[in-house]
Amino acid sequence: MQRVLVLNGPNLGRLGRREPEIYGTTTFAGLTRHLVETGRRLELDVDVRQTDAEHEMLGWLHEAADEQLPVVLNGAAWTHYSYALADAVAQRTADLIEVHISNIHARDEFRHTSLTAPYATGIIAGLGLGGYDLALAHLAARRDARED
């Protein structure tokens, strides 16, 4: 099974409690269980991680680049201001799908810019937690197309 990292940045560990009108009521633990099961159905070995420490996220992105692992990335606030995150994403050696739970273009102006977008394979925004499912399905379809 192909391994995929699902990496989540600051405050996403508070899903279910943080602004449920924007992010929903599913907890991070619930999201993790769901994504691991979705991965099994897609024959993906999904490793879901979350951190509020930018250096830890950078290390995970370096790991993905070194091991040529596909990534689903919700960089959260770092997406909009972290040049270090953008530099790490630019080093990717496999597909990277940027995911945002909310529609970042319909929110505060500072959220309209993604520093990581130029280096991502694709971006999914505004589809709630279902955006993660779409990202995993896309990665599985890309894997299957390469195997044919």
From TrEMBL:
Pathway: Metabolic intermediate biosynthesis; chorismate biosynthesis; chorismate from D-erythrose 4-phosphate and phosphoenolpyruvate: step 3/7
Residue numbers binding substrate: N74, H80, D87, I101, S102, R111
Record key words, sorted: Amino-acid biosynthesis, Aromatic amino acid biosynthesis, Lyase
UniProt superkingdom: Bacteria
Catalytic activity: 3-dehydroquinate = 3-dehydroshikimate + H2O
Pfam families, alphabetized: DHquinase_II
Gene3D superfamilies for this protein: Dehydroquinase, class II
Residues under site feature: Transition state stabilizer: R18
Catalytic site: Y23 (proton acceptor), H100 (proton donor)
PROSITE patterns referenced in this protein's UniProt entry, alphabetically: DEHYDROQUINASE_II (PS01029)
UniProt record, GO biological process: amino acid biosynthetic process; aromatic amino acid family biosynthetic process; chorismate biosynthetic process; quinate catabolic process
GO molecular-function terms, A-Z: 3-dehydroquinate dehydratase activity
Enzyme class, first EC level, given as a word: lyase
Keyword Lyase: yes
EC number(s) on file: 4.2.1.10
Function: Catalyzes a trans-dehydration via an enolate intermediate.
SUBUNIT field: Homododecamer.
UniProt family annotation: Belongs to the type-II 3-dehydroquinase family.
NCBIfam families per UniProt: PRK05395.1-2, PRK05395.1-4
Record protein name field: 3-dehydroquinate dehydratase
Source species: Parenemella sanctibonifatiensis
Lineage: Bacteria, Bacillati, Actinomycetota, Actinomycetes, Propionibacteriales
